[in-house]
Hints:
Strand content of chain A: 35-45%
Number of helices of chain B: 24
Helix content of chain A: 25-40%
Radius of gyration of chain A: 20 Å
Largest sheet of chain A: 5 strands, antiparallel
Shape of chain A: elongated
CATH class of the largest domain in chain A: Alpha Beta
Bound molecules: flavin-adenine dinucleotide, thiamine diphosphate, magnesium ion
Strand content of chain B: 15-25%
Structural class of chain A: alpha+beta
CATH architecture of the largest domain in chain A: 2-Layer Sandwich
Number of strands of chain A: 9
Number of helices of chain A: 5
Oligomer: heterodimer
CATH topology of the largest domain in chain A: Alpha-Beta Plaits
Number of domains of chain A: 2
CATH superfamily of the largest domain in chain A: ACT domain
Strand order of the largest sheet of chain B: 3-2-4-5-7-6
Structural class of chain B: alpha/beta
Distance between the termini of chain A: 40 Å
Radius of gyration of chain B: 25 Å
Amino acid sequence: MNAIAALSPYASVLGKSNIERHTLSVLVDNEPGVLARVVGLFSGRGYNIESLTVAEVAHGEHLSRITIVTTGTPEVIEQISHQLERIVPIHKVTDLSMQDRVIERELAMIKVHGTGEHRSEALRLSEAFRAKVIDATIESFIFELTGSSAKIDDFVELMRPIGLVEVSRTGVAAITRGAKGM
Amino acid sequence: MSKQMTGAEMIVEALKDQGVDTVFGYPGGAVLPIYDALFQQNAVGHVLVRHEQGAAHAAEGYARSTGKVGVLLVTSGPGATNAITGLTDALLDSIPLVCLTGQVPTHLIGSDAFQECDTVGITRHCTKHNYLVRSIEDLPRILHEAFYVARSGRPGPVVVDLPKDVQFASGLYQGPLNIQHKTYQPRLKGDAERIREAVAMMAKAKRPVIYSGGGVINSGPQASKLLRDLVALTGFPITSTLMGLGAYPASGDNWLGMLGMHGTYEANHTMHDCDLMIAVGARFDDRITGRLDAFSPGSKKIHIDIDPSSINKNVKVDLAIVGDCAHVLEDMIGVWRAEGCKADEAALGAWWKQIDHWRARKSLAYRASKTTIKPQYAVQRLYELTKDRDTYITTEVGQHQMWAAQHYHFEEPNRWMTSGGLGTMGYGLPAAIGTQMAHPKSLVIDIAGEASILMNMQEMSTAVQYRLPVKIFILNNEYMGMVRQWQELLHGGRYSESYSAALPDFVKLAEAYGGKGIRCSDPADLDRAILEMIDYPGPVIFDCVVSKEENCFPMIPSGKAHNEMILAELSDDAGVEIGSIIDEKGKMLV
Ligand SMILES: Cc1cc2nc3c(=O)[nH]c(=O)nc-3n(C[C@H](O)[C@H](O)[C@H](O)COP(=O)(O)OP(=O)(O)OC[C@H]3O[C@@H](n4cnc5c(N)ncnc54)[C@H](O)[C@@H]3O)c2cc1C
Ligand SMILES: Cc1ncc(C[n+]2csc(CCOP(=O)(O)OP(=O)(O)O)c2C)c(N)n1
Ligand SMILES: [Mg+2]
């Protein structure tokens, strides 16, 4: 399959294995269907979405900000940005990973079941990760944790043997450091 | 310019304000108010097609031959879904269309109402943009925006879905003047620094080639003129894609013919061996590049395109200039002149000598016959007998399309309407109808295949109704010839389902529709028959019976490089197994 993928006109022959992870910030006019356009572009052209978050950021102007974490070769990532720019209601696409200073955060709520030693171990670990307890019963906790996706991954892995029940994550929100906007 | 009126009246008013004189359409329950508004005025004409796919292709033919936005009007549900192929065709070939679709009333949307379909959902992937108009207040803005989006930047089809209650509602109409788009403002002027750099690269080039495409046609007649100026100024050789034919005249000294899969030997070798390639409004399609890692390996590449996503999509280029062809070409010429640039005459002389050597292979040659009409010969005679007239050519899809591209020579832009990107059989007849509507006095010919023409044959009835004297010139080889050729090359000559085993009598068919039918199978009689077709003042189906198993050469087999073309001589050699030329990987490609 690989040989064929490389020959396909769409897969650039130049970058075969250098897959990178990028965070794109997309400012859109919040009109009906705009999210479907963005998601449809990714599925239609075979791009990956690792996470996607969206919310209105300026009510008066009907502006929403979509943050997409995607993977691909540098050529594919460049294509993704340009393909997004073709969508008529999109104001601006910024590849935050090309910026030198970005902050990425994700919020997760993690439900853990356990009693006795397991229960106190979960609590100790949550303190080490600075997770907040937002719900508790005598046999469970729900932790709220904010941080990089990797930090959340780590915490979830630690909870798994203790009694992980379920996780709900927001996906990545991202912004550049400093005074300038996108 | 603001006036109280119904939604349906606004639609007609907006069409007038946008300079639309012709709409191609088909009525139904969800668009009856619009048809009623059309009925009560004369400024906007309507052409009743026989299938909504025909309306879309007719609007494409109208648009491509005039440079204006083509408009179609269809009902909800099946009306909209029938138009999908035409919308997709327009998207791939960058043709500006506005497609007005009826929709069930807003309060019924989502209830699986009669003839409801999710038109904006279905067409999201096959339009440049689409709108569902939810209230009368939004209608005027959306209508004018739709035209703006369709024609600006890289053109494309735009759907406006119109619920029936919005057509009946009444509100304040606004003209197009003060509508400024919030987000969509494509860049027209190229970066001055990059243009200077491009000119410097051109002045240094030893083996340059200009590779122009449909973007030059999209940009308008001025771009074609500037392209000609640039070629004259530099003396560079020029080739073009299927979509760009006519931007540079085929009679021009620097013309190499079309490039790509069925392009000429000289065009493809020039592309392969050049040291500088200047791509102007062309998108490095796979029909052009052949094997990507062997595509013009030794060259620097400059790419001028209005759509940043076309750049570095398939082929990595060294210098990208985002902008409109006409604007960028004008600036390039300006810089070339201002800086007193001169092409490297000595190097260019040697390069032309090499090119002439490739030209001498006469790659479009074929074996003539005294007994059967060769399809290439038919196109050549058609060309000779129509070239001094005001002629427009459309095509269907297949071998005949490629022979038309190779043997019909275009001197002007907007004279050649063909389905390149999607390759839609059934495109040619409706496109000819749209073209003829725009140019009532001109000679419009659809060069067709006997299989393709049957896909939208019903539009003959439209031609008869509106007295459109379109000529359907069928190269009848009784095969889906292009499919048969690939089966010969790739599948051991097992002609699975590619023989047209039951064909109508095209002469009788023409007569049944109320047109004229002509059949010709004798090369000696061909000129007379073609003249008879041209002279007939109404629509004609010309059944040109041609040799059945002719292959279209030259050809770059899939998965091969430009300098690995198959030429007609080679393929005629007894003992050469064409099937073995394409390897397993090549077979996977289309
Ligand atoms: C059976 C068959 C065989 C074919 N064989 C061949 C073949 O041998 N050779 C061949 O050439 N084609 C062939 N084609 C056609 C091929 O599939 C493509 O449609 C064609 O090559 C694309 O042409 P293009 O690159 O000019 O791009 P187009 O599709 O015309 O795209 C135009 C490009 O210009 C840009 N553009 C648009 N407007 C502007 C503007 N104002 N300013 C600047 N840029 C602009 C667009 O962004 C786009 O990148 C074949 C098709 C079929 C059906
Ligand atoms: C709608 C559609 N279906 C199928 C195809 C695949 N296809 C490409 S060429 C071709 C055969 C065309 O036959 P004909 O019109 O007789 O032209 P010829 O090649 O014989 O000149 C087919 C089936 C297509 N391009 N479009
Ligand atoms: Mg045929």
